[in-house]
Amino acid sequence: MDNDIPNIATSVDSPEVEAHLKPAKTGPKPKELVEGTIMGLPVGRDKTVVPPEQVQELAELGCTDRDIANFYGIKEDTLRYNFADYLIKGREELKISLRRSMLKTAHSGNAAVLIFLAKNILGMTDQPTNTDDRKPLPWTDDEQ
User: Fold this and answer.
1) Is the pTM higher than 0.70?
2) Secondary element (H or E) of residue 28
3) How many CB atoms lie within 10 A of CB 51?
4) Which of 67, 86, 113, 126 fits a disulfide with 63 by CB distance 3.0 to 4.6 angstroms?
């Protein structure tokens, strides 16, 4: 009967208690930072290296100059001075992508997009114009 009762006086330093206190699995080991090379243009007083292709990609996503400059830790003026062509190209790519998406949506029959495109691309309005060209022709019953 003495074997059925657990020994309450077990020491905390005993191997049985230590086995229960240790975690069963350990997580992944923290990764260490390593030095790498980034290809880009050195800009600003501290010569921060900024990859031009990444600037263009961020502009394609619609990021503002402030967003991109803050991301790299440089001033907006520095960004515009060194990467103006990449910013312009990225924003133009964004516009083209949006136009493609809008046209695809319009072709699927979305009335709101069709109306928007008709007004903005075709110059149509939902306001009638009051010019002489829009008046009906005069009607006469006289035959000559």
Assistant:
1) no
2) none
3) 15
4) 67
- Long-range contact pairs involving 75-80 (C-beta distance under 8 Å, separation at least 24): 75/44, 78/43, 78/44, 79/43, 79/50, 79/55
- Domains (ranges, CATH) in the chain? 38-123 (1.10.10)
Cα angle, residue 91 at apex, residues 89 and 92 outer, rounded to 5°: 65
Rounded distance between C-alpha atoms, residue 61 and residue 107, angstroms: 24
Beta strand 41-43 pairing with 48-50:
antiparallel
- The pLDDT profile of the chain, 144 residues, written as one tens digit per residue, is 555 655 555 555 666 656 556 666 677 888 887 788 889 999 999 999 999 999 999 999 999 999 999 999 999 999 999 999 999 999 999 999 999 999 999 899 899 988 888 888 888 888 766 666 666 767 777 765
